[in-house]
Amino acid sequence: MHPTLRADLDRLPELLASARDFATRALAGIGERPVSAAVPAPDPGPLPAAGVGAQGALERFARQWEPGFSGSAGPRYLGFVTGGSTPAALTGDWLTGVYDQNGSSGGGSGADALERETLGWLRELFGLGEAHRGAFVSGATMSNTVGLAVAREWLGERQGVSVSREGAAALGPVHVLSGSPHSSITKALSVLGIGRDRLRPVPLLGGDREAVDVSRLAEALDVLDGHPAVVVANAGTVNTVDFDDLRAIAALKERYDFWLHVDAAFGAFAALSPAHAALVDGLDAADSICVDLHKWLNVPYDAAVQFTRRQDLQVRVFHNESPYLGLPTGTPDFLHLTPENSRRLRALATWFSLTAYGREGHAEIVGRCVALARRLGEGVAAVPGLRLLAPVRLNVVCLTLTEGATPERLGALARAVADSGEAFLTPTVLHGTPALRAAFSNWRTTETDTDRVLDALARAVRELGPAPVADA
Known about the structure:
Blueprint: H1 3-10, H2 12-28, H3 53-64, H4 87-99, H5 111-125, E1 133-137, H6 140-159, H7 163-166, E2 176-178, H8 183-191, E3 199-201, H9 214-223, E4 229-234, H10 246-251, E5 258-263, E6 288-292, E7 304-308, H11 311-318, H12 347-381, E8 386-388, E9 396-401, H13 407-419, E10 426-430, E11 433-439, H14 447-464
Parallel strand pairs: 2-3, 2-4, 4-5, 5-6
Antiparallel strand pairs: 1-7, 6-7, 8-9, 9-11, 10-11
C-alpha cells in the first residue's frame, strides 16, 4: 500500500474528526456567509505527483477553494429552486459515502430494500396509489427523461412497434403537448431522439397565468384524429408556481389517447399543505411523475425520484442485457429501471430525513416557506420601483421594475443583490417581461432572512436609479 494511503488509513478516525470539525464551522457560519461567491476561483494547478494526504488536501481546499464557495445551502439563497440539507439528510448523505453501497441491485445488500421502503413513503407523502412504482435518479432533468422514455415506449406499443428495439425512427412523427414546460422537457426530447421541435405549445389561461387552457388542449388533441400523443402537465411552474388542472386533464383520457406525464419537481410538495393540497388533485392519475428531492425535501444535491404506472415498459427501455446480471423478473433491480448501472444509494439521505422529521416536520417547512414567500411579496409591493408580476401562489415571488424593465436593468439589479452578499435571485422572463424570481425552499429560512432579502432588493433598486429617458 502506498505509504501516504497507509498513513491516512491509520489516522482515519482523526481525519474524520477533522473533517467533522471543519464542516461544523462551515455550517455554523452559513447564515452569514456571502450568498454569492465573494472571491474569484483560482487558476487550475498541475496534477499532484506524490500527494499530500487527506489532512493536507483538507488544508489546501480550505485555503484555495473554500473561500469561493457560495452560501447556496444557506437561508437567503433564493435562486432557482434550491433547498439545503437538513441535519438528518446530511447525516444520511455522509453515511452513504461511508457504506458506499451500489444501489443497482440486491447483490447481498439490503440497500435496495431501503430504497423501496423510501419510495413507498414518498408515494404516500404525495398521495399516490400502489399502482405507481419508482426509482431514485439524479435530478428533475433525469426524472423527466426517464418518464418520457417510458412514454416513448408506450407510443410504440400503441403503434405495434418496440422503440427500445427498433429506435425512435420507428414511431414516425411524435406529438408532445404542453402549456408551460420546463426547459428540461425539451432537453429530454432531444436526448430521447424525439426532437425538441416535436413539442407543441398549447395556449395558456389568460392574464398572469402559466397554466394550460384545458379546452385548448382538448382542441389540440382533437386535431390529432386519434393519433396517440404525450401530454406534459405542470404541477408548479418555475416563474409563478402555477398548476395545470390535473384532474381536468386526466378526464380528457376518456376521449383521447395520450400518455400523461406530470412535472411536479417541487410542486408535488403542495400535497403537504392543507391549504394548497387541492393543487395536486389528480396527480395520482398521471402515467409518469417527476419529483425533485434536493429542492423542497432539503436533501443534498443529486436526488430526485420518478414514478410510473407502467414499470413493465420502463424495464423494456432500461433493462441491461448481460449474462452476469440476469433477466429482470418479478420485482426488477434498479439497474433495469434507470439509465445507470452503477448508482450510489441516493435514497439513504431521504430515508434519514423522513425518519427524523416525518410528514409533520416536512409539512412545517413547506408551510413556513409559503408564508415567507407571501411576506416577501407583500414587501415587494410596497417598495418604490418594484412590482409583482403575478400573485404569490405558493413559494415563488416573481417581480420586476415598475419602469424600464429591460433585460439589462434586471440583470444589473440581480448582480447588485448578489454582490451585496445578502441574497441571490435568478433572472427570468414572464410573458415577455424581464423579471427576477425568489424561490423559498430552504429549511433554514426565517422571517429575519426574508426581511434582509427585501432590504437588499430595496437598496439595489435605489442604487440602480430611474430608467434612462429615451431620446425624442
